[in-house]
Amino acid sequence: PSRSFEYLLSEVVGKNGKPLPAEHLRGWCEFREERGGTRVDWRSRFRVTTPLIGWVAERVAGPGTARAFNQCLKRAKRRLET
């Protein structure tokens, strides 16, 4: 079985379907057996491409984006387990 994989998003879009000023640098998942199940470590790296203020936006929006992404994963986990 696969232990990991990498991916790259060609475009980052918002809820409205329009492209966001962001570049996906790398995404990867690693899998390992743990306590009779599978542990999944999922990482994804983005860069905000807005000139001059992109680095500020990354630091401000990063934690909120991570929380939203984690909530999506928790919902998916609940659905898979029911």
Detailed description of the structure:
By secondary structure, this protein is α+β, with helices and mostly antiparallel strands. It is built from 1 helix and 3 strands, in the order βββα. A 3-stranded antiparallel sheet has the order 1-2-3. The longest helix has 28 residues. The chain is elongated, with a radius of gyration of 15 Å.
List the helices and strands and how they pair.
Blueprint: E1 4-7, E2 22-34, E3 37-48, H1 54-81
Antiparallel strand pairs: 1-2, 2-3
Helix/strand/pairing category:
alpha+beta
Report the β-strand fraction as a percent range: 35-45%
Low-confidence stretches: none
- Number of H/I helices: 1
Order of strands across the main sheet: 1-2-3
Q: Share of helix among residues?
A: 25-40%
Number of beta strands: 3
Q: Estimate the global geometry from the Cα principal axes.
A: elongated
C-alpha-based Rg, rounded: 15 Å
Spatial gap, N to C terminus: 24 Å
The biggest beta sheet is recorded as: 3 strands, antiparallel
Kindly state the mean pLDDT as a whole number? 86
> What are the secondary-structure elements, in order, as H or E?
EEEH
Summarize the structure.
It is elongated and about 50 Å long. The protein has a 3-stranded antiparallel beta sheet with strand order 1-2-3.
List keywords for this structure.
alpha+beta, 3 strands
